[in-house]
Amino acid sequence: MRILIVGGGMGGTILANNLARRLTQELRSGKVQITMLSASERNMYQPGLLYLAVGKMTPDELYRDQASLLEPGIVFHVDPVETFHMDENQVKTRSGKTFEYDVMVIATGSRMHPEGIPGLAEHAETFYTEASALKMFKRLQSFEGGRVVIAVGVPHKCPMAPLEITFMLHDYFKDRGLGDKVKLHYTYPINRVHSLENVAKWAAPEMDRLGITYETFFNMKEVDGERKVLRSEEGAEVSYDLLITIPAHKGMEVIEKNGLGQNGWIPTHRTQLNMEGRSNVFVCGDTTNIPISKAGSTAHFEADTLGENIAALVKIGMPVKEYDGKVFCFIEAGKDRATYAMFNYQTPPDPKPPTRAVHWFKTAYNKLYWVSARGLL
């Protein structure tokens, strides 16, 4: 069986390693081939971008050589897919090569799309790429006071990032001695400060306690850079001295160009994780259109399910497990405190009061990420 994994991020890497360990004998005998096609020779620890944006990490800490993270037996090519020919069970890559498959998993991830809001890309800071996170940090370093607006669009990668950056900015300015000169104001598109109700119930009092103001039912419409005003679809205006945004995200361009899903999100079965209408094509991580958080842990738990099921397809001809929607997210809450949200399709999150212990656990996980990418954690 030829197993093709398209994408070398968190989900694709964990899945490839999971399968290689489950199918060691089959790989050795040649019964199974596992091939990964990636757009990059490096793997990035994406949660680290948040720390890069506030000067708590450096770019070199974000990366590892992708080949070094993969189990022996996995064939790895830096040769991104450009066209999918699913009726023929093949893809064509940037180099012009054709790769055929019996089972394919698409784990191409997502990208921020500030261009969807006029003026946002030009006038707001963000942290979803290395370049934008460094640019944001330089802007923060030169900022001496005023109103900082943190504006959130949906959907976006990492559900807790808007809250985390807000609390981290509060600490950042306080540590710089600017606590009384900076006012933080947070906007969110629906009628609470987070899409998950229990997370919102925890976060709003935290913001109140820290003097962070917030505004809900605020869907970004446009930025007037000359007047330094952010306008909403609802007709509201918010003035700013520094605008930081969590922009809405889309799936990767290759998914859009191939017409595989609206805005780059592939229609995906919520428990079996196959692409709707395709029994031998599966989707992992941000690429799905499943209405759950686009987070590293989501990709991890989906990869675990797919690893078990694809190995079972090889061994017994049928899947053995369903994905239950499991997600686990740490939430940095400021001043070396953190909490977490754990939930699935049936059970909502229930964040507890932040503690130093959870913060240090998250800090430790930052170092253990590469072990996790190997699928060993």
Present the secondary structure layout.
Blueprint: E1 2-6, H1 10-22, H2 24-29, E2 33-38, E3 42-44, H3 48-52, E4 63-65, E5 74-78, E6 81-85, E7 90-93, E8 98-100, E9 103-106, E10 110-112, H4 120-123, H5 130-142, E11 146-152, H6 161-175, E12 182-187, H7 197-210, E13 213-215, E14 220-224, E15 229-232, E16 237-239, E17 242-246, E18 249-251, H8 253-257, E19 281-283, H9 296-316, E20 327-334, E21 337-343, H10 356-373
Parallel strand pairs: 1-2, 1-9, 2-5, 9-19, 11-12, 11-17, 12-13
Antiparallel strand pairs: 3-4, 6-7, 7-8, 10-18, 14-15, 15-16, 20-21
Helix pairs in contact: 1-9
Describe the fold and architecture.
- The strands form 7 sheets. Strands 5-2-1-9-19 form a 5-stranded parallel beta sheet, covered by helices on one side. Strands 13-12-11-17 form a 4-stranded parallel beta sheet, with helices on one face.
- Helix content is 30%, strand content 25%.
- It is built from 10 helices and 21 strands.
- The protein folds into 2 domains: 2-109 and 252-316, FAD/NAD(P)-binding domain (3-Layer(bba) Sandwich), CATH 3.50.50.60; 140-249, FAD/NAD(P)-binding domain, CATH 3.50.50.60.
- The radius of gyration is 21 Å and the shape is globular.
- It has helices at 10-22, 24-29, 48-52, 120-123, 130-142, 161-175, 197-210, 253-257, 296-316, 356-373; strands at residues 2-6, 33-38, 42-44, 63-65, 74-78, 81-85, 90-93, 98-100, 103-106, 110-112, 146-152, 182-187, 213-215, 220-224, 229-232, 237-239, 242-246, 249-251, 281-283, 327-334, 337-343.
- The longest helix is centred in the last third of the chain and has 21 residues, at 296-316.
- With 377 residues, it is α/β, with parallel strands linked by helices.
- The model has no long low-confidence stretch (mean pLDDT 95).
- Helix 6 (161-175) links the parallel strand 11 and strand 12 (182-187).
- Helix 1 (10-22) runs parallel beside helix 9 (296-316).
